[in-house]
Amino acid sequence: MTSTPVRYYRDQPDWRALQRHLPARLRLDADTAPDEEFWSWRGNEVHLDRYPAPAAAVKIVLHHGVGTNGRQLSLVLGAPLARRGFETVALDNLGYGLTRTRPGLTPGYGDWVDLVVDYLAHERARDDRPIVLFGLSAGGMLAYHVAAAAPAGAVAGIAGMTFLDQRVQRVRDETAHDLLNARLGAPLLRLLSHTPAGRVRYPMTLAAKMSALVNDPVALRLMTADRTSGGNHVPISFLSSYLEYVPAVEPERFDACPVLLTQPARDRWSPHALSEGFLSRITRVPVRQVLLENAGHYPIEDPGLRQLEAAVAEFATACVR
Question: pTM to 2 decimals?
Answer without folding.
Answer: 0.96
